[in-house]
Design a protein that fits this description.
This protein is α+β, with helices and mostly antiparallel strands and 236 residues long. Helices cover 34% and strands 28% of the residues. The protein has 2 domains: 2-88, Endonuclease I-creI, CATH 3.10.28; 107-233, Endonuclease I-creI. The longest helix is centred in the middle third of the chain and has 15 residues, at 136-150.
């Protein structure tokens, strides 16, 4: 359930509405994913009997995503109590997850709003993992608690802008490289979980087999477009 909560923070929402044929409001929570098998796995974890519907993407205009929508006032209230709020995108704050469930929560959020990829610099393989959120308050809390558990310095939070519906929305992100990325991998998957997004997990597994020569950062090339990103927060 901590994994599902993390996934809802990334790719879920809650809302209430009162249909014309009813006097009392109905309370919903939704989870959206482009990966139908994974969303089906989440549905089974929740023991939900609800259908999964195709959803039209706001970016492509095509039905290239899927949504699980559940009408349940008790679950809605529970999510409110855990820190989820309607129209949460930029409003959500820190989520107080018990320590023993933190790896599952982080993995759930990562599968929704995280990324990982392998690339090369000067012929040497590198790995990078990132978390992104429209809420500065949430990403700050995640940054502090996650880095404390990984026993590494707190990451710098960077800002970029995402254009949606003609409006620019600030997005905040933190990055993990090489050794820190390996610690993150062990933290998220070290408890042998059953619920995770396979394609992201396989990138970490691939990294385990990558052979890297001894490498020192000499004349390290500037990251493309780095000057376009605004460093907004740093804490050691």
């Amino acid at each position: 359930m901590s994994y599902v909560l993390g996934y809802i923070v990334a790719d879920g929402c809650i809302y209430s509405c009162t249909p014309k044929d009813r006097k009392k409001p109905r309370y919903f929570f939704c989870i959206t994913s482009k990966d139908l098998p994974h969303l089906t796995k989440i549905k089974n974890t929740l023991s939900a009997q609800h259908k999964i519907y195709s959803k039209r993407s706001g970016y492509t205009g095509k039905n290239d995503a899927y949504q699980l929508q559940i009408d349940n006032e008790n679950v809605y209230s529970d999510l409110i109590g855990l820190g989820i709020c309607p129209r949460k995108t930029a409003r959500i704050g820190s989520i107080d997850v018990p320590h023993k469930f933190l790896p599952d929560f982080v993995r759930g959020f990562f599968d929704g709003d995280g990324s990982v990829y392998i690339y090369t610099v000067n012929g040497t393989s590198q790995i990078k993992a990132s978390f992104i959120s429209a809420s500065l308050l949430f990403i700050t809390g995640l940054n502090n608690r996650l880095c404390e558990n990984l026993n590494i310095p707190t990451k710098t939070i960077h800002q970029s802008n995402d254009k949606r519906n003609g409006r620019h929305m600030p997005l905040f992100y933190i990055d993990f490289y090489i050794n820190d990325c390996e610690k993150l991998y062990q933290f998220m998957y070290g408890n042998n979980p059953e619920l995770y997004l396979e394609r992201k997990y396989q990138i970490f597994k691939k990294w385990e087999s990558v052979k890297r020569r001894h490498y020192k950062k000499v004349n390290y090339p500037s990251k493309v477009g780095w000057h376009l990103n605004q460093k907004i927060y740093s804490k050691v």
